[in-house]
Write a structure and sequence with these properties.
Elements lengths: L3 H22 L6 H14 L10 H20 L4 H29 L4 E4 L2 E4 L3 H22 L8 E8 L2 E9 L14 E4 L1 H9 L3 H7 E8 L2 E9 L2 E6 L2 E6 L2 E4 L10 E3 L6
Parallel strand pairs: 4-11, 5-10
Antiparallel strand pairs: 1-2, 3-4, 3-8, 5-11, 6-7, 7-10, 8-9
Helix pairs in contact: 1-2, 1-4, 1-5, 2-3, 3-4
Length: 272
């Protein structure tokens, strides 16, 4: 027996991580509300499981259509090349994950697993599914991390930081030891010199500062500490003659001076 609520919830979880993987591989920033909307839309599309079994060719076309719709919802439309890229990555990720599920189903015929029209249903605890899907996500991200070519990594970059109508030009150092990220993993964090941070915050009203304020917990060799940060409107990072715009990053103030002429420290992921 298939329960519709369980079917939608479980496939929403799967689609959430598939969209996260797509964003990582396509180097795209994702707003939380858009990825949730995309994942829920994917979960609803899993009702496709109740339709009569169709030929594999039509099933693939339907899956391609769903991936195209989910990418439009989650990532929007920038260029046709970018749209094809994100749709292709999502489709390939879905086929890899679905192929693994089908392999398990064919080999072991688990009683609590149903597959029809490439839609998977598990009569298992959502916690188990979340953990297993999270592991799949971490594997993909790890593989991507270790397959990035060293030659593609810049040692420095220029940063245009925008807060309200103000624009700050920064000289950024790409630090492979910097792995700061927010608790949800959805915002990039840029460390800037304390002097510039003070200049920025002095221009903000008390209410706006409190609205933008973010406390960023970090771990260092000396223990755990909290960095004070604010939410910026956007930054444009330029490295290796390529530019990348990041919306709503968190800018944190360094507790120690940034030396050698740099005034910002960037996570390598931010320029990929």
């Amino acid at each position: 027996m298939i329960y519709i609520d369980v079917l939608i919830i479980l496939n929403t979880v799967i689609d959430y991580f598939l969209l996260k993987i797509t964003g990582k591989l396509a180097k795209r920033d994702i707003k939380l509300w858009r990825i949730i909307l995309g994942a829920v839309s994917g979960g609803i599309s899993s009702l496709y499981i109740f339709l009569p079994t169709i030929p594999i060719f039509l099933d693939l076309l339907f899956k391609l259509l769903i991936c195209a719709i989910l990418c439009l919802i989650t990532f929007g439309f920038k260029t046709i090349k970018d749209y094809i890229k994100t749709t292709g990555i999502l489709l390939l990720s879905s086929l890899i994950l679905g192929g693994g599920f089908i392999g398990i189903w064919l080999l072991y015929k688990p009683e609590n697993m149903t597959i029809n029209n490439s839609v998977v249903y598990f009569d298992i605890s959502p916690i188990v599914l979340i953990i297993s899907t999270s592991v799949f996500y971490l594997i993909i991200v790890t593989v991507r991390h270790f397959t990035v070519k060293d030659g593609e990594m810049a040692e420095n970059c220029s940063i245009s930081l925008y807060i309200n109508e103000d624009n700050y030009l920064l000289n950024g150092m790409v630090d492979t030891g910097n792995s700061l990220t927010d608790i949800f993993g959805l915002s990039e964090i840029i460390i800037i010199d304390e002097r510039i941070s003070k200049e920025i915050t002095e221009k903000l009203s008390k209410d706006e500062y409190e609205k933008r304020y973010r406390a960023v917990p970090i771990s260092t060799v000396s223990g755990k500490e909290i960095l004070n940060g604010i939410r910026a409107n956007r930054i444009i990072i330029t490295a290796n003659k390529k530019s990348k715009t990041i919306k709503n990053p968190i800018i944190v103030s360094s507790n120690t001076p940034i030396k050698d002429g740099w005034n910002a420290i960037v996570n390598p992921r931010s320029i990929l």
